[in-house]
Every structure is written in C-alpha cells, then in structure tokens.
Amino acid sequence: MKKNRQARLEMTSLMDVMFLVLVFFIYCIFDMAVHKGVKVELPNAEGAQEKGERIVITVKADNSIQLNGMDMTKDEAVARVKDLNAVKMKLPVLISGDRKASLGVGIELLSELKAAGVEKTTFQVSGKK
C-alpha cells in the first residue's frame, strides 16, 4: 500500500535566508558613518577612521564655521559643543576643515575647545597621500 504524501513547505531554508538578510541589513546600518557636516575638500594625510556618533565642526574655504550644518561664529560653536558635552556623554568632536581654509582658524578652534574641557578633538583628513 502506498500512502499519498502531501506536499509540504520546508521552512528551514526560508528561515536561513531571512536570517542572512537580517544580518546583512544590521551590518550595513552599523557600518554607515553619520556625517553631519558640509562637503569640503579635505587635506591629504593618513589618519585613523572614527565611527559612531560625533559632533562635526566644519571650517569652509571662506573660514566660516558650521556646527553639524548650522552656520555660527567660533565662540557660538565652542559654547554649543561645551553644552552638548555636558548633556551627552562627551562625544568626540571632528573638525572638518577645507584645504583652502586658514590654518589659524582651525588651530584657534582646537585651542578654544581644549580650554572649554573638550577632550576628544581631531581633524578630519581624506586618507589619501
């Protein structure tokens, strides 16, 4: 006697594929860098890559300053970073300076941030030599 076998849907392979898709999207989300600044032409140098949330101060080619995309003066930017560090858990500050911007503006900004108690401050570079 032959028993009629009913067709059945194998869920194991479907679950494996869905798990791989989920892992892929989670990996992509964690690998994306959040950049809140303005596109500038960065100087060429080697540097370590930083990931995660950070505060971005952009010094544009005309030496104007933006904090996370908002125009402001140097003093306003330093005060805002100091306030943000008091509220949040001391986020690192990334100074993204255009290669045509004055070096003095970046150095003054770095000095004022250090004087305000901001410990983690770095300059962003393009990574090419």
What does this structure look like?
The N and C termini lie far apart (78 Å). The protein is elongated, with a radius of gyration of 24 Å. By secondary structure, it is α/β, with parallel strands linked by helices. The model has no long low-confidence stretch (mean pLDDT 77). Helices cover 37% and strands 15% of the residues. It is built from three helices and five strands, in the order αβββαβαβ. It has helices at residues 11-31, 74-87, 103-115, and strands spanning 55-59, 65-67, 70-72, 93-97, 121-123. The longest helix is centred in the N-terminal third of the chain and has 21 residues, at 11-31. It has a five-stranded mixed beta sheet with strand order 3-2-1-4-5, covered by helices on one side.
* Strand order within the widest beta sheet: 3-2-1-4-5
Proportion of residues in helical segments: 25-40%
Can you give the mean pLDDT? Answer: 77
Radius of gyration: 24 Å
Q: What is the strand tally?
A: 5
Termini separation comes to 78 Å
Share in β-strands = 5-15%
> Globular, elongated, flat, extended or rod-shaped: what is the shape?
elongated
**SSE pattern, N- to C-terminal:** HEEEHEHE
Question: Which stretches are low in confidence, meaning pLDDT under 50 for 5 or more residues running?
Answer: none
Number of helices: 3
Keywords:
single chain; 129 residues; alpha/beta; five-stranded mixed beta sheet; 3 helices; 5 strands; 37% helix; elongated
Question: Strands, helices and their partners?
Answer:
Elements: H1 11-31, E1 55-59, E2 65-67, E3 70-72, H2 74-87, E4 93-97, H3 103-115, E5 121-123
Parallel strand pairs: 1-4, 4-5
Antiparallel strand pairs: 1-2, 2-3
